[in-house]
Amino acid sequence: MSAKRNEHSTPHHDKLPIRMLHDRVLVRQETGEGERRSGGGILIPATAAVGRRLAWAEVVAVGQNVRTVEPGDRVLFDPEDRAEVEVRGVAYVLMRERDLHAVAADRFEGSEDSTGLYL
């Protein structure tokens, strides 16, 4: 299992010169801080005041002790509790696995007891 995990610790498409340690997860946020649309199509400006809002990101690398997420998964996290790092001009967010709130992955589809999110 550890050999398989090490294969996935660095994404093949980015060739990042990083090996994540312990329970760390490196993610790339999917959307910026700009405007967004509501479910009804209403444009919400970036300056609109909102409550505490969680964000989605794509997992790009995981440490050897991470058990619930893999590179390519989408995860839900609190953007207030994050450490940012820039690698080769791309901004990433570094966090511990326990700071993730949910996981969305294709491997959950078709599972009898799954809703598609691991909450």
Automatic annotation (TrEMBL):
Q: Name the SUPFAM superfamilies for this protein.
A: GroES-like
Entry-linked InterPro entries: Chaperonin_GroES, Chaperonin_GroES_sf, GroES-like_sf
Keywords, comma-separated and alphabetical: Chaperone
Q: How does it assemble?
A: Heptamer of 7 subunits arranged in a ring.
PANTHER family, A to Z: 10 KDA HEAT SHOCK PROTEIN, CO-CHAPERONIN GROES
Query: Its family?
Result: Belongs to the GroES chaperonin family.
Give the protein's function: Together with the chaperonin GroEL, plays an essential role in assisting protein folding. The GroEL-GroES system forms a nano-cage that allows encapsulation of the non-native substrate proteins and provides a physical environment optimized to promote and accelerate protein folding. GroES binds to the apical surface of the GroEL ring, thereby capping the opening of the GroEL channel.
Protein name per the record:
10 kDa chaperonin
Q: Which organism is it from?
A: Streptomyces cyanogenus
Gene giving rise to this polypeptide = groS1
